[in-house]
Every structure is written in C-alpha cells, then in structure tokens.
# Entry
Amino acid sequence: MTESLPIDGHSLSLDHFLAVVRGRCAVSLAPTARSAVSSARRSVERVLAQGRSVYGITTGFGALSQQVVPAGQARELQRSLVRSHSSGAGEPLEAELVLGMMLLRANSLAAAHSGVRVEVLDLILELLNRRLVPFVPRQGSVGASGDLAPLAHMSLAMMGEGAFLGTDARPQSAGPVLAANGIEPLSLQEKEGVALLNGTSLMTSYLALAIADSEGLFDAALAAAAISFDALRGDPSALDDRLGEVRNLPEQRAVAASLRALIEKSALSVARADYQGQDPYTLRCLPQVLVAVRLATQFARQILDAELNAVSDNPVMFEGDEFVNGGNFHGQTLALALDTLAIATQYLTAFSERRIARLLNPSLNRGLPAFLAPTPGLTSGWMIAQYLAAACVNENLVLSHPASTGSLPTSADQEDFVSMGPWAGAKLRRVIDNARTVVAVEWIVGAQALELRRPAHGGRGSEAGLRAIREVVAPWSADRPPSPDIEAVRARIADGSLVAKVRSDVPF
# Structure
C-alpha cells in the first residue's frame, strides 16, 4: 500500500477501500485521472456553449426532466437539486459508512464520465484525509436513482450548508467546520449536483464493509464449530474429502479441509470402530451448510468487485460530447447481494445456536453436565446464554426478509421500480452483529465443554481456540454474569484477533 492511495476510477480494491475507511490511509487524485477529468469537463462547457438540451445540465430531474432550464440558471439548478434532495431522517449513518460512500463517489467521478471539475474531487478527498464526515441521516434512499438523499446530505455539507458529524454524533454546522479547517465551500457548477447525487455509493459502502465483516465472521464460526465438534465427540467421517468430491463442490471440500485441520489429532472426534448411529445435522452437515454461506459471500464479492470501479452516473459521458441516458445508478444487483448475505448469515447464526443448545442439553450433550453448570440446580451455568442466542436468531429471522422484493414507485411513477438496497444494507449490519453474539456464545460454551472432557483433549485447532478464549474469559467455576464475557469475545471476533490466535497455531 502506498503512503497516499491514488484514486483513478479504475483500480480501487476492497483492500484499498478498507485501508482508507478503517485504516486511515491517505488518498489523492491520480495524475492520469486529473487530466481525464479536466478533459471531460470541457465536454460540459461545449454543450453549454452550443445551447444543447441535456438531461441534468439544462433540464429538470426525475419526473420533471421535460422541463427545460435556461443556461443562465444551470448552476442554480444544481444547487437547488442538492438542497431539495437533502430529505433524510433519523439517526446519522456511522462514520465508516459515510467515509466509504465519499471514497466511492470520488472514485466513480475520477473515471471521467461525469463532467465535474477537478475541484469537486479534490474537496471530497481532502475531507476524507481530514476525516471530516458529513452528517448523513440513515433513512431516505430507495437505491434507485442512486442514493439520492444520503449523497445530497454529503454534498450539502461540501457546500457549507449542511452539517458534519461531531465527536458526540451530533450535527455541527458545515460552514464553521469548513472555515475552521481553512476549506472553501464548494460552489456547484453545471452537471456537478446531479453527478454527486447519482450513484450507488452508499449501497456499495454497505456491501464492502459487510463482506469484510462476513469473511471474518465465517472464520470465527468455523473455529467455534470445530470446538463444538470436539466437545460433542463428533464423527470425523462426515468431513471425508470424498464426500465433497462426489458433490462436485470444491468450496465444500475446502470447508471440510479446514475443519479437519482444526480437529487434527483429537482424542475426542475419532473414527468409530463400529456403527453407533449418525451425528445430528449440526455436526454431520457442517461442510454442506457452511459452504452455502461461503458461496453467498463469493457471489456478493463478485458484485462488489465490479461496483467498486463502476460509473453510476446519469447521463454518462462518452467521447464526442455524447451524453447517454440510462440506469447505471440503479442498485438492484447490490440489493440482491446485500439480501443474499443477510440470508446466508442467518444460516450461520441459526446453525451455531443449535450447537449451543445441544452442548447445554444433558439429553443431547453426550455426558456433560446440564447447562455446563458447576453444580446443576444450585448453579444455572450457561442456561440463559442460549436464550440470548435464540433471541438473536429470532431477530435475524425478521431482518433477513429481503428488502429488494419490496419495490415502491417514486417520482410520480417515473422511477417505478426501485431496489431498496440501502435498507438491505442497514439490516445486514444488524444481522452480522447478532451473528457475532451467537458465535461468541458458541465459542465460550464450546470451550467450557471441551475442558469438561479432560483428560481427553480436542484437536490442534480446538485446543488453540480454547487457549485463545482463556486469555479473555476465565473458566466457569461458579455462576457469574455472562454478559461481560460475551461482549469481550464479540469484540475479538469483530477485530479478528481471536481467529488470528488460532491461525498462528493451526492454519485453516
């Protein structure tokens, strides 16, 4: 990673995105992009000089696109657009979401198909480098003609008329914030308002962050499942590579291989000399269920990789001063990816909760104490932690209902089918957060169960997971409030440190 990441409209990757949004990497406009953007701007100037009628430059917007605006009012048209579209409501979006939205909007404009001035990009990138985050209300976008309301609030702050996010998450008037930082407010010129607002930037920011979080969550769930597999004395024949081979799913074979590595050298999950019945699905079908989650993430990643460097403006400019009206701002693919990830994450969450319940149930946990309590009856052990997991699963059940199937027409039916991608993204963040809670409970409960199997030991990865958790959570020798333990493990699942400790001993 370079000291300052050059933004050119073509080269942004997920790693770059995360380095800027979560890692505070600086950004700058690439010289090639600077030249291309300046050249594209001259196309807008020629259109104005010729008196051509072009959508977004000399016309109204949406259902008002038939209204011609005199050239002398073309700049006021852009300012009016930003002001009128700043119609969001609710709590502000998290800073990382807005920073991601800003980066993606800048990258799209840097592709030089939008006709803005270089000064517009320079301002966005300066705000990113200074971590000045516009105050953007959570509600307001239907993910069709771009993320109009969120991007309008971003642009309004750039104009010095909106607000920035204060350290207390309250709005601070944009004008004084810009002045305190020696930044001149943006004075919009022709085409610039519509270019800033037409884009899938918020939806893509949701998806990029969700994929990064989902990949880390999947690894944590895999490690927790291996601990549970050992603690419940699973039959390792279910992880036989030949099963994945005849299922024709390389990804299933990869999941099974990871699980085999984690339980390697286990004295608990050993091949059975004679037939003793089959394990429950939550053990026997681990590769078959978890591969669905992995495939969903791969699908979402494919859409993200395309969208990171997409031009989502309207109209889109091409050589020869051609302005092509289309629908690149529509977020249907992103909405589908976000909804798909939510459903897949619910698979993972519900799957984990069923293993928690089995570990705690004396009728199903193969000889462990009821609720893993030190003195069942006198102590309740982890009984109510399973209630927490069940509550999270139920919440995710509602939240994983697809948003993208619920289109409602807007703009006097001019925009008669919309994606609802932003709500899909907002729900997904909550779904992932709930899933972290459930996986944290499984990791803690599985580790407790594994210790209760002594002197028999688990596999190399399971034992590494036990050691990792014991750096955070003490063994359960008497009842205590579980909440602090669960929160501590949740945090280490979120930052990846728990999985990193396991991987340092057992690559999987």
Notes: The longest strand covers residues 4-7.
